[in-house]
Amino acid sequence: MIEAWLFADPQGPANAGVPTQRLPPQWAAHQCPEDFLTLDHNYASAPACAEWLKLPLPKQTKSSRPQWLIDARERHPKAFLSWLCREEVPRKCSAYRETHGGADALRDLDWQAILARPPGEMRFLRALVDDLAEACGNTSLRQTSVASETSRMARRTPQVLRNI
Question: What is the pLDDT of residue 152?
Answer without folding.
Answer: 60
